[in-house]
């Protein structure tokens, strides 16, 4: 009998293989510990380059800097520091070649003291066969092995035999495949990287050249998001200087989604990427949270390109308090500039300047107009005249009232005034749209997701507020009731979330990655383009999951952004998330309403059919709680209760009262929009008919909800005869 303290001798083939791999993994960690020490030493000595006895090599790298590759264990050690210990191990793959050569693949590259590779970075060209080799094209690989590690311990191996003929009899092959093992694991609250199991078609998209526009499409669960994130890591690896300096922006649909994906890049050793929900892209120029969603009519109008015209008119629309004429007394003479001249000056100046930057030009034109109106016998030189006029209190007060500086938030809030709205949106927005948009600014609520793009447009049109003039607008609050209303609305909205008047112009990036692109509105594309005039793009989406009433309009807007830039497209064809049984149901539902949907093939079957229930007398919230409770028992990981917006609060309360949301670690209640891009092991879709009715995306939104589960799906209708079930035949 072995003593409990001595390590068990490997007995099975699996244990023997694990022991072999453990020995290599130990070597890698030892080398990393050395490299970390050496990195500290380099830092403390203030030297900028890693010193090695391979002087020839160091000289070569001198020219290209330290950022280039995985060549320095020193660099690797630094990268390791940002790896999340909770993620799977540093070394995750091994290739056995026909030549007998063995290569290990990992999250970063590590070399030994003789500069021989102990592990190659997954992004290096030499690692490509790990992802691309197949039995029909083995790429000189006999066996591909995925190591499962927990921290620095190897806990399992999974093999694929790619070239049976070249495999010697001593080559051990273990497991049924790493992919299936990965896919059946329970889901937590954050997305995991897939670095050990990237599939060939995904790998092609990840390693595509950086230039121009790369679009990645595919149905739900095909790995579009996770592939795009690995692509960001690949781009940083292969063109580090370009992208680390120029910046990479990743845009997703919501804050919840950003929280869900935020660990993926750090787990790949990359932490220099900016992640922003679409509602906060403009937060570099305007202070806003942008999480609230408008009701459908307002949202559709605010996203439409017609708002460009509305905002253009809004910027040139004089404030209601703007004086109609200037009248001042100079040396006993009355000087006057009438409304026509004032209007002409305003027009001329705005044709060449942004409002907040046009004040000087406007003032010059105003003084000129006054000079023209002076009596012939006024004995003053022009310069003296200007000085004396500018010194009068009347002139200064007029100037500030006539050409106030205006922040984007103040300007947008003016649309809360019905009269302003109808003036600037006349013949552009319908009455219903005007009312919906205007009403949204009369509520004392935070800016919405759609407002972000409008504020950004306004910042662009108005220009920054010059420092010394920031608060002059408050000098002329009119006592007129209507004006007061406008000012009050402005104050309400601008107060807690005012523009930072001295903010730099918007930030720009070298690469912009847009996820859930089917939901980006035309106005939001304009906002994104401002941040990527020189950028290359990765655009990821699935039109069949669009929440827009007009999926074609969203697609048109996307095509406009791509323009004539070089463009390559990748289609993901396999659904890695949904069990085949669940996806079959979801596919029937979407195809009925949206026949052009790009349907992937579900790779996994659980043998468990979705359950379609009816709440009957107990009511929807109670039924949802009951199903959630069952699902929590049946699945290991998370449960998502997806409700129409009108039921969210009620269902949330019912779950809490049922004791199911005590710590929120396993069960959440969300709307279909909030569930975009996310997944849960078990899903309850509450009242699918209401999900369809309450979203402009209709059935496409229901499709999003139905494709969230990784294990089990249950739907609950309010009563028998639900409409959505008709498509199931
Ligand atoms: N090669 C892979 N190995 C392991 N897991 C994978 C692989 N590809 C995708 N997955 C998993 O499949 C699930 C779906 O991936 P992801 O969310 O990226 O899909 P998506 O196409 O963006 O979906 P949706 O369009 O529904 O938002 C995730 O859990 C992801 O980790």
Automatic annotation (TrEMBL):
Binding positions (ATP): 218-225
InterPro entries given in the database record: DNA_helicase_UvrD/REP, P-loop_NTPase, UvrD-like_ATP-bd
GO molecular function: helicase activity
Pfam families, per the entry: UvrD-helicase (PF00580)
Keyword terms: ATP-binding, Helicase, Hydrolase, Nucleotide-binding
SUPFAM superfamilies: P-loop containing nucleoside triphosphate hydrolases (SSF52540)
UniProt domain UvrD-like helicase ATP-binding: residue ranges: 197-579
Protein name (database record): DNA helicase IV
Species for this entry: Microlunatus panaciterrae
